[in-house]
Amino acid sequence: MWHVYILNCKNGALYTGITNNLQRRLNEHRQGKGGHFTKSFGAKEIIFSEEHPNKPSALRREAQIKRWTRNKKLALIKGDKVLLKKL
After folding, report:
1. Which pTM does this prediction carry?
2. d(C-alpha 18, C-alpha 12), whole Å
């Protein structure tokens, strides 16, 4: 099972990624091993995740979410489907 996740960084930035192990990936981000973005801004917590049956599906969803505005990502995190469709 693969997960698309949104991570809240220490500076308030949102980072979107995929993994097959959420806790391991969060630990990697916190240790500065999770990529340049989270190494620079620090990882705080995973604030959203959704499961996908395979890696290609997760990669497509990750790419979609990464194109979204911050407000649209926040609507997804809150589960606000009405606002999500408007944005």
Report:
1. 0.93
2. 19
